[in-house]
Amino acid sequence: MSDNTPANSDDEESSVPWISLASLGFATPFIFYNLAKGEPDKTYLKWAIAYGAAALLTVCSFGVLAPLLLFPWIGGSIHLFLIRDGHLPGKGKAISDSVKSMIESTTASADKDPVAEAKRLRTKARRTVASDPLLAKKMGIGRPDLDDRDADDGGLIDVNNAPAQAVETLPGISAQTAKDIVAHREAHGPFADADELIMSVSVNPKFEAQMREYTVFIP
Predict the structure, then answer these.
(1) For residues 33 and 49, what is the distance between their CA atoms, to the nearest angstrom?
(2) pLDDT at 112
(3) Is 27:52 a contact under the CB 8 Å cutoff?
(4) Residue ranges of the chain that CATH labels 1.10.150
(5) Least buried of 68, 98, 100, 104, by fewest C-beta within 10 Å?
(6) For 136-185, what is each residue's pLDDT tens digit?
(7) Transmembrane stretches, by residue range (predicted)?
(8) Distance (Å, whole) CA 55 – CA 77
């Protein structure tokens, strides 16, 4: 009969206790807490509380009680190794699933926050602009007016290349100011940054911070 267990299952189970070691024990209470979910026996939950309390006391004491961290770090890691290897009640796969649950929960939370995701995309796009302006221009970063662009930039506007209709979507930029921006760059060349833009045209001071958040300047 064929074995349907995923090929990386053993690797996942073997690596989980090392997560506790690598995190200096701070991940230990979370692993045990996830193990406790759905278990009628509250043993895992009690261990999660014990390991969590030790880690919390270490942090709150500003290192005075640092030796306590050995409990969730070394003790908790050994505990997880014993569970994984079958020397204590519990299964390595359960530990692996608990860590997966933590990761999936964190990812789901991030996915539910469109504001944080948009900001992450803007940061990523700005890195592309800084490292390879030509590629950024080809991708259409900051150019929502382009139909065939290959960029998800979180709403950035390229002040140096976007048309007035796109520029006026920036916070604090009116239709007339957008036209002034386009006229200024055509007469004097591209803007270096937001500071030069603000010095050159009229920008509502109340929206300056927001405007900076959504502008990018590709030469």
Answers:
(1) 8
(2) 62
(3) no
(4) 114-216
(5) 104
(6) 999 999 999 998 888 889 999 999 999 999 999 999 899 999 999 999 99
(7) 16-36, 48-74
(8) 14
